[in-house]
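Incident log entry.

Two folding requests arrived from the same account within the same minute. Monitoring flagged them as a possible duplicate submission, but the sequences differ. Recording both here for audit purposes.

Request one:
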Amino acid sequence: MYTLQELAQKAKATPASGRGAEAVVRTDAEIQPDIAVSPKSATQASRDKATMYNDDTAVQQGWVFPAIGVSTIINWLLRYWWLILLLAALGAAIGIGFGKTAKPRFNAGTDILVAPSNLQLVPNDVYVPSVQAESQLMDIESKLRLLTSGNVLQRVVDELKLQDDPEFNGTQTGLLSGILGGAKKNADSANPEQAKNIAALRELSSRIEARRPERSYLINLTVWAQEPEKAVLLANATAKAFQEEVAQNEQDGAARASRALTEPLNELKKAATEAEMKVAQFRNAQGLQTSNAGELVSTQSLTQINTQLVAALTRQAEAKSRYDELTSANNQALDPSSTLQSPTLTALRTQYATLKQRLDAMAMTYGSLYPELVSTQSQIAGLQTQIAQETSRILRAAKLDLDQANSVVETLRRQTEAARSAVSLDTDAQVTLNDLERDRLATTALYQTYLTRAQEIAQRQQIDATNIRIVSTALPPKSRSWPPGTAVLAVAGAVVGGGLGSALAMLLGFVGLMRAQRRAAYAVN
């Protein structure tokens, strides 16, 4: 058997010849309905018919693939106009029915601004702000994925109770499922509540779309539902849940950092306490005492003793100089210009000078036996005795001052030697003490740093530093996004039905043409 295409090619390749071939006898009445007559001259039409009828190879093969023109197609369409009109009306009816019965979709959207860096609320934040554009874009893309993550969707499901909503939990039945008697979903589940929650999450995930426009920090969030008010609630709740989830992630990160810093605090505190105890015990064992300035008390004592010794040596030198001077002036006690000076000695010297002057005057006038002269001489002798006694007293006082100065100097020198020995011993112990102090300071500083940082991060958990803002809240849509309007569906259904009807009409015409040609070929044979 040959196909129609092979038969047509053979018919064109074989030259027309009437020798030894059987003529195919077809009347004009048989050919006219199936073959379109082209606008040619009558002579040319007769010649084409003769060529077709005398094609021996075509007759032998069965039939030839007919030539179809535009007029033939138009004739087919006009012949089956009722079929085209019927399918167009049926398509319009289906479109109207679909528009009336299909579940509508209402889209609601909101815009969220995701800034590349958080708010700088604390000077020493746990999160380091990124200044590189590529890192900022990666952060925004990560948050874009977070917007449609399971945690955010679970927040929305819990807030709006979507697990109890038939539209989301898989228990809603449509018209077709009601007619066919379809069973409800999750009816046989071992845990119906969990199954409803999972169904709500999956349904909500399929209804959310989030995208970021190029060269922008905005995120466009779109959610659809069967009711416009519900679509608005879903969009706003999703944006709010996204903000809360980002803030919660940062708080969780701060909490982990706080726990990581808090865990070694006990060990650091113990180490700092042990270091301080070692310093105190060593200082007590060695008798080391320091002043407020951190200087050893023994060193301070040595400095003070040296200062006192210098002062004592000065007083000793002064006392010795005075004593030597008083000793050398002992024979000049009656001289008013003598260094031996005291109020009593001055008064005695004055009395002595007065009596001596009187005595000299009476000696020149009276004799040696004059009674008053004798009395004056007796008074002068008494004054000389008193002056001698006063002079002795002054010398003894000077000697006592010199002895006290010598004693103080000797005592301070002994104390200086003892202090120097103590300082020498304390200096050796101070080296070890300095090592212990350095270890104490390092351990204490590390413990204080950890403690301060842990407290800062613990307070940071209570602060929401995320810089995410909803720049436009969702508004109820004016019209549904799916399905299109009933009029549009009716027109589309009519167009599709008319197209199918036209295709079916052309198919029926072509089948009729092929059958007619086949009957003619069999009739000749």
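Request two (distinct sequence, not a duplicate):
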Amino acid sequence: MKGLLCIFAIVLTVVPSMLPAQTDTLSMYIDTVTVHGRGGNKGQIIRRSDYQHATSADGNYVEQIVKMQPGVSSVSELSSQYNVRGGSFDENLVYINGVEIYRPLFVRSGEQEGLSIVNSDLAGKVEFSSGGFGAEYGDKMSSVLDVSYRRPDCNALSITAGLMGGSVAGETISKNAKFTLISGIRYRTSKYILNSLEKKGEYNPSYTDFQLFATYKITSRLNVWTLGMLSANRFSFVPESQTTSFGTLQDALQMNIYYAGNEKDSYTNAIGAVAFEYSDRKSLKMTVSAAFYAIKENVGYDIAAAYLLSSLDRRLGEPDDNIATVDIGVGESLSHARNSVMAHLSAFKYSGVYFSNANKLGWGVQSMLYDVDGKVNEWQTMDSAGFFVNSDKSLAMYRRNVGKTALARPDFSAYLYDKYDFAPTFGNVSVNLGARVCYSDYSQITSFSPRLSVLITPYNLRGYSFRIAAGRYVQPLTFRELMNTDGTPLLSRDPQKSLHLVAGVYHDFLMWNRPFKITAEAYYKNLSDIVPYTVDNVKITYYASQRADGYAAGADFKIYGEFVKGMDSWLSLSLLKTEEDIRCDGYGYIPRPDDRRFSSSLFFRDYFPKFDFLGVNVTLVYATPLPFGPENSPRHTAVFRSKQYLRTDFGLEAKLWQNRLKNGRSINIGVDIFNLFDIKNTISYSWVTVVPSEKNASEGAFAQYAVPDRLTSRRINVKISLKM
């Protein structure tokens, strides 16, 4: 184990020195997780024991584990969003019991996001695929997270409470085992952790949700289940001041900002689903389901900011003696927004699976109706005159987005796949061949998406298996891409497309008489008709009047196993390069917003000798810089690189009286230390324009500076869990 840690330390030291110069700070992560097994065609299976004991600053334990997988990146402990192999947040599919889940439309930052829709107390089977997934999944271009809520086999109750909220989950089963119910209530407030941000003020975030999953066996062959979710997220903020130091030792700067105004946001979601399942208990299973999804969001803020930019006399060895020596410039800004969206989605689906010896045939048909009505009214003025001053001395509003988008469209999709297992002379072979057909009424385009995956396990290479996968993935335009607030015409209604090519090698072996596995995958994604975008925190802004072609290429590696007997740990490494060529702009290929060349994560779990009830876990995450550029500027101006990301989290858990209680009942006390080394990580940049002060008027007129928006500092959380 010491050798593995040394290798990881060398990687963290050497690789960053080989990369281009950067502009800001570092960060890291912690989770308590483990991933075992690989479905030949679907991807990784995440065990329930992994996310049950995970350490997560945002309370989203399932997504926290996903972020630790090869090919997945995320640099915000406040958000459940993640990028997969160069794709955006909007390119990831999430299912709960076959119901597709949609992320909020107007969330701009991780501070506003709250908990994700996946309740880890209720979750059972979790599968994740980072590419090359089968035809039963669509229609997004990057990944699939497939979560199934549990069907209880006993009566149980669990309660968790901590400094940032709590949860209650109950499960029951009837005496005749025909009826089961699992439900949970969660409450979370991130006020405690948000108070560690550099932007000081009165934070009042709260998230509350209730979920249930019930099943009933009507006959020996017919079952019915229902899924219900209701969540309410409220975020209010009264900013006061912010002091941010940035730059280099030779050119140290400090931005002091004083605020007036407030922000009030609300996000409400409701999901209802019902399904009838028929099984002949031998070879046939069919499901008919209906799902309804409603979302209501309101975002409103009026915030004035007056700022002063100064140079610092930063003295080595005296970190507390930073003296502002010269006032470089001053400025003002006023930001206003009144945004709202109402969305209703309904989906009806019929699917089936037929088993025959080594053959599995699957099919499905779905109709979906989108009804979205959104309004955007936001603007921002800059500098002391109240307007942005252009280079020709003319005055203009710095940013103004006003628009309405109404989208009511039906979509239809169908899929068919056949998985066949056979054993030729050289080994076992599993082939999954399928295709999806999707019709979008908005674009009036029918797309065809063939997909193939082959898994080979040779006889003469014991413990090895090989996988190749290829597929076409089509993503129709959604409300996000169509919310074209700059008034320019939509270039095309064609859906975005991605062609996946994946090749993988997987090796199972024993070390120290314990099971281990090494996985390695290389991939290439050819992208066409994609809509360019920029990312600010978790807000994605699309350039709807442009289209681009691009690619993503890379390799993912992972070793995991029982480095400590009975506890799984892992090390993952990912290499990536992704670029796009915006049509007719004359600039050729430029890096995409998630062009993260190298990322790595190490998760290690252990316990104290002779005190096996006391466990610890440590998570390290390192990621290289991302490209960024000035606000309200063309994509090709994103020539800067943010700072690398480095974060360490630490978790300590004591299982009390577990051996004295029956049926797995226990009382656990945990202590989590988020951002153990208190590293100042950067999530985004705020571009400010300053007017030269009287002391510095000779150095020019107006200038823009990228001020880093940093993430949370070190925080300690204490929680207690009871399982009865």
